[in-house]
């Protein structure tokens, strides 16, 4: 199954999250694209999503997941104990997303941002679609 994670390419927290995922994605389940790039913009349009940079987006096959739904679904395919976090999917997303939105709203203030999207290291560059 084709799995693509769309992320805010200038957000330090988002870039750290992508690096976190790469280190724990030993089966290379995920590819990545920044929301600011052409691939990201095309995927947003294809799935009828607005260009909201405050959410990580997971594209799995023909489905798109946002906010905590995306984050918890991503955990399912990571190594270690992270797949167990998907148990929180039983909590209704409006409740989960309250916490997600607080972090998303403050991510630049708390973690800062870059002037431009990150350039992935050579060893994982092939997993980035932009």
Protein model, in words:
The chain is an alpha+beta fold and 130 residues long. The chain has one domain (3-125). Helices cover 38% and strands 14% of the residues. The protein has a 4-stranded mixed beta sheet with strand order 2-1-3-4, with helices on both faces. The longest helix is centred in the last third of the chain and has 19 residues, at 93-111. It starts with a strand and ends in a 19-residue tail after the last helix.
Strand content: 5-15%
Number of helices: 4
Summarize the biggest pleated sheet.
Answer: 4 strands, mixed
Strand order of the largest sheet: 2-1-3-4
Number of domains: 1
First-last Cα distance: 20 Å
Mean pLDDT over all positions: 89
Spans where pLDDT lies below 50 across 5 or more residues: none
Content-based structural category: alpha+beta
* Total beta strands: 4
- Shape assignment: globular
Order of helices and strands: EHEHEEHH
Radius of gyration: 14 Å
- Secondary structure: helix percent: 25-40%
